[in-house]
Design brief:
The chain is mainly beta. 0% of the residues lie in helices and 64% in strands. The two termini are 22 Å apart.
Length: 70
């Protein structure tokens, strides 16, 4: 996991690329997402964006923390 610091309501691009995943979700961003893509988010509080990727055999997750600073 990594951390990015931003001011409140600043645009942050959440981007992802996965291999062998058929079910991808990022709570707070979207569900049923494509295997790669990006979405703009504008957090006003510190938020953890956690990508969850699944296939018929297993699942994995990665996360990034967007720390909102005054």
């Amino acid at each position: 996991s990594s951390t990015k610091k931003v001011s409140a309501n600043t645009q942050v691009v959440v981007a992802w690329e996965t291999d062998n995943c058929t079910n991808i979700s990022i709570p707070g961003v979207g569900y049923g997402l494509p295997s790669s893509g990006s979405k703009n988010v504008y957090p006003n509080v510190t938020t953890i964006y956690k990508l969850i990727g699944k296939n018929s055999v297993s699942s994995d997750d990665k996360s990034i923390t967007v720390e909102v600073t005054p």
